[in-house]
Design brief:
Radius of gyration: 20 Å
Shape: elongated
Strand order of the largest sheet: 1-6-7-5-4-2
CATH class of one domain: Alpha Beta
CATH superfamily of one domain: Histidine kinase-like ATPase, C-terminal domain
Number of strands: 8
Structural class: alpha+beta
CATH architecture of one domain: 2-Layer Sandwich
Largest sheet: 6 strands, mixed
Order of helices and strands: EHHHHHEEHEEHEEE
Length: 236
Amino acid sequence: MKEDHQRGTNRPNHLSGGCESLAARIIAAQEEERARIARDLHDDICQQLSLLAMDLQQLRFGLSQSEARTAIDEALRKVGSITSDIHSVSHRLHPSMVRDLGVTAAIKAECGHFAARHGIPVNFKCDLLLGAIAEENGLALFRIVQEALHNVAKHAKASDVHVSLDRSADDICLRIEDSGIGFDPEQPQIGLGLASMRERTALAHGSLAISSAPSRGTVVEVIVPAGLASTSSPIG
């Protein structure tokens, strides 16, 4: 199994190679995230709106009362689904739960939402009270969970996912493991959000390890300092 391991604290060239280089990588990661959101909007919400428009067009023709009622019920169901999808996109863009409730509660809620939406069970585990964590590091962990779960839904064909949070003396460890088809890290990966994961981890002065192989599933492990910054929020 090939392991792709990158550690922000051990990469002086990455963080000290000039603001221009770092800014370019951040912009590239942001563009990758925006491209993923655009694909979500096009592949999911736009298609649902097109189907809804077709259902509404049927009401212009001579449908019986029972047929019209069925068409209206189906249109209302699709409106509810589209509303839920838009709420999900908005939530991914601005996860206020991380700030308000802490990253543990936010990640647990994200796992539950993912399982309900995609029908893929997620086992979330956080046995210990982890204490406070720098707010930006907590947000980085939350975003990485979102990205990894998105990959599971779109690419992994997994039957289940395991997400865990743990703490050592000074660090928080996040682990996401799926039972899917895996991939070859040596090959270029389009649309997996790996650049975003790496940059978020590097900016949090943490380490990222991605282990995967065809038919062997994927493991994403992130370790970030718990209290690097002066501002912190509850993690539990």
